[in-house]
């Protein structure tokens, strides 16, 4: 671009990226439209890849398109991970990092790793993004001159680059707190490479060039599904199957150091598949209201963490979660809407992500239509429910909140 062009163009307004609540009107969100990575799932690998079945990709895409459309119809700008990834890969540094993150020498041996790195380096950004997301099998490797032992001994359908079917759940691999983004540290091998992609998107996509980081290069496990922005300055962090006590503690320490929070509530949750993140049992639906699984309502507790003013962290509690949350938020009480009906229905609807709602504004949430009773209760409580289909999307055990990473929300007045 010439100097003349630069001078004559009116600079585009910088997009605002900032999230300090769960319910402020949603402006920009990062989703991932599922793609070929879902086609890698088989009955033999789905457990390890954290899916409860083998989804039908075409239908999952239709369901996802409808989800994105509901958000757009409410004025939300939808960014798709696959697209911003391709755009970020225009930067050679992003390509270098991407190739290195995808090629695992321990899995491939030196020869094959070298050959694959040079093959991937020569690919167009779009094709490289395809491999980064959907992985690559041994039979898809480029024809080698001399076949390595690794190559000869692997089955054609084995993965040379592992696929990332859980990219669908953009909530977990990055999280915004105020005007900063934290690249998380995913606990399970099936997902750990996802953050290499979010990291390079935020580092090299021009849109995010001014974005500051939170949580630095910490490696203690922390997943976005465990992080709830209860109100500006007040975070809840679930500690269970994914986020560890060390993850919650170092996240709190770094949020305090950056002035992003004054209180972090560390909330123990059952170490079970059904409750892999805090947002599977509790999400906010209004400034002062949550939808919550009744089985945990009375037992959920919290360790309030606060800065001691000299770089340390003061640990309080454990206290009952609801009271501790209301106190930290400076409200009288947090209203609770139960996951629907009797204990069995509640258990079914919790499993089907009835608690996993995404607020697009205070009192307006996106929810899976199948959770009939929970949605009815939300409406009885005055919450507007935007229903979406999720029969295929839900087979990965994630709902509207898991499938979205808010990048901009209006600040609540
Ligand atoms: N924020 C969430 N609840 N995410 C759900 C993630 C589901 C995904 N299959 C996993 O097991 O990791």
TrEMBL record:
Its EC number is 3.5.3.6. The active site is at 402 (amidino-cysteine intermediate). Pathway: Amino-acid degradation; L-arginine degradation via ADI pathway; carbamoyl phosphate from L-arginine: step 1/2. GO terms for cellular component: cytoplasm. It is an enzyme of class 3 (hydrolase). One of its GO terms (biological process) is L-arginine deiminase pathway. Belongs to the arginine deiminase family. This is Arginine deiminase. It comes from Crossiella cryophila.
């Amino acid at each position: 671009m010439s100097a003349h062009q630069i001078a004559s163009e009116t600079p585009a307004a910088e997009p605002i990226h900032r999230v300090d609540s769960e319910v402020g009107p949603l402006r920009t969100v990062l989703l991932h439209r599922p793609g070929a990575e879902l086609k890698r799932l088989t009955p033999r690998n789905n457990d390890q890849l954290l899916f409860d079945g083998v989804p039908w990709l075409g239908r999952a895409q239709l369901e996802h398109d409808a989800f994105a459309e509901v958000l757009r119809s409410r004025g939300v700008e939808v960014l798709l991970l696959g697209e911003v990834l391709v755009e970020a890969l225009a930067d050679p540094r992003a390509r270098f990092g991407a190739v290195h993150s995808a090629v695992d020498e321990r899995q491939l041996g030196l020869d094959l790793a070298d050959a694959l790195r040079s093959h991937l380096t020569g690919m167009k950004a779009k094709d490289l993004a395809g491999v980064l997301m959907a992985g690559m099998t041994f039979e898809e490797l480029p024809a080698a001159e001399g076949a390595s032992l690794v190559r000869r001994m692997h089955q054609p359908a084995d993965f040379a680059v592992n696929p990332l079917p859980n990219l669908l759940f953009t909530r977990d691999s990055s999280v915004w707190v105020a005007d900063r983004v934290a690249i998380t540290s995913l606990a399970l091998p099936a997902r750990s490479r996802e953050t290499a992609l979010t990291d390079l998107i935020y580092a090299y996509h021009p849109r995010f060039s001014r974005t500051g980081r939170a949580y630095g290069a910490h490696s203690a496990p922390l997943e976005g599904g465990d992080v709830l922005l209860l109100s500006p300055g007040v975070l809840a962090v679930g500690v269970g199957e994914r986020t560890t006590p060390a993850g919650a503690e170092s996240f709190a320490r770094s949020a305090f150091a950056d002035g992003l929070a004054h209180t972090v509530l560390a909330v123990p949750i059952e170490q079970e598949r059904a409750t892999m993140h805090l947002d599977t049992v509790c999400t906010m639906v209004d400034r002062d209201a949550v939808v919550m699984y009744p089985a945990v309502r009375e037992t959920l507790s919290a360790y309030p963490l606060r800065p001691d003013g000299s770089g340390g962290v003061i640990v309080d509690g454990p206290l009952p979660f609801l009271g501790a949350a209301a106190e930290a938020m400076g409200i009288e009480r947090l209203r609770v809407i139960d996951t629907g009906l009797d204990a069995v229905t509640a258990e079914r609807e919790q499993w089907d992500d009835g608690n996993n709602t995404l607020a697009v504004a205070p009192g307006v949430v996106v929810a899976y239509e199948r959770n009939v009773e929970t949605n009815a209760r939300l409406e009885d409580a005055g919450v507007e429910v935007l229903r979406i289909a999720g029969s295929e999307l839900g087979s990965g055990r994630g709902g509207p909140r898991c499938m979205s990473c808010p990048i901009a929300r209006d600040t609540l007045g």
